Amino acid sequence: MVGLGRMEPALRQRIARERLPVHLLGHIADRTRVAAQLAAADVALACGPRETFGLSVLEAMAAGTPVVVSDQGACRELIEPGAGAAVAGARAVAGAVQDLIARPSARLGARRRAEQFSWAATFAAVQDLELSLLERRQRSR
Asked: Any idea which fold 42-140 has?
C-alpha cells in the first residue's frame, strides 16, 4: 500500500497480528517511483466514495493497472468492463480484485480506457458541459 493516513497504525498492527502479505510503503514523493509502483501493481484500489475526478485512477490505468473503485463518487464513471470494477463493500472489493487478477486482458483494457482521457479530450468535455449549462441558464431567463 502506498500513502499515509490516520488508519496506518491500526493497519500495521493488523498486518503484523494476522501476518498479512501487505507492505506499507508510506508516502512516495518521487514521481518516477510512483509510476513504477503503479505499473508493477496487479490491481489498484480507489475505494473512497467522495472522489470528484479520479486522477489517481487514470494514472493507474495509464500504467496498465486495472482499478477497483467505489460505486459512489466520480471514479465509477471512469471505469468500464475490462478496465476495472466499481463496487460496494469489502467483500465486493475482494471479489473484484480476484476477478481482475485472473484476467490478464484487464491490463490492456485499463490502458485503453485511460487513453480516452487525454488532457485535450478532458478539457473539451468540460468546456462542452459548461457551454451547455450556460445555454440552458440563458434559455431559462
From this structure: Rossmann fold (3.40.50)
